[in-house]
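Re: beginner question about structure tokens

> Can someone show what the tokenized structure looks like for a real chain? I only ever see the sequence side.

Sure, here's an example I had lying around. Input first:
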Amino acid sequence: MNTYPRAEKYPDLLHIYSQCSGPGALKTAEFVADRIALAPGMTVLDIGIFRGIQTCFLAKEYGCRMVAIDPLVDDFDPRGDGKPYVDHLRRNAESWGVAERVTGIQAGVPCTPFPGDTFDAAYSTTALEMIRGFEGNDAYVAAVREIYRVLKPGALFGLAEPMHRGCPPPSDLAPLVSEGEYSFDKFVASPEETAVQFLTAGFEVLEAGHAPDAWAWWEEFAEYDWGCRSEGSEDRRMIEVDADRWLSMGYIIARKPAGPGA
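And the corresponding structure tokens:
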């Protein structure tokens, strides 16, 4: 397994997983941030934040100014209070001491309020796959195209989200991921398929693959995520049956072309 020196400063994983969604938590954030070369002074768009602790982590550990967007309210599970996720972000930003570097806006892609060519980088983990699953591939491409629009020429976009290994699920796993109107397999694609969607939106794809520690992240998620720890968790059952055969965490590192004469 790789080491994540910034993420490992925050060892209370029960708390960390209560404030962010998806496998890897702060490790995923560090993995993506390093690949898009986040640095102090950059203005970064963070798309789909849940309760915002990854946003705060990036602001604190990389010194960036984070502009975080999420259209949703906190009613995902019984713990939810019905407030916008950006309200939770503001609370976490205060407790992390980064309120002056974090802005939360209740908005989503592709309907953002930003002018074109605004941001130095963009970041998203465990968010855009929800658009794919609920609205389809065309909506996913439209969301990526909006991120392209608001990035400065030459800027990087780093994404990590649940993906599969480009093959059908094993027969014992298939019922757990392919049944129901919004079955899990509608939300996930392979890195290769996702790269095509980025190319369709106009990006140059620099990297597309599976995170080296993807399965360790899923095992950590199964142990610490509130939903997985609940009795009868379908997510935990899916992870246990999968056993590192089909499910992964994929990532894309893409660049908005700099344009002629850049």
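Each token stands for a local structural state, so reading them left to right follows the chain. The beta strands are 43-47, 65-69, 102-105, 119-125, 151-164, 204-210, 247-255.
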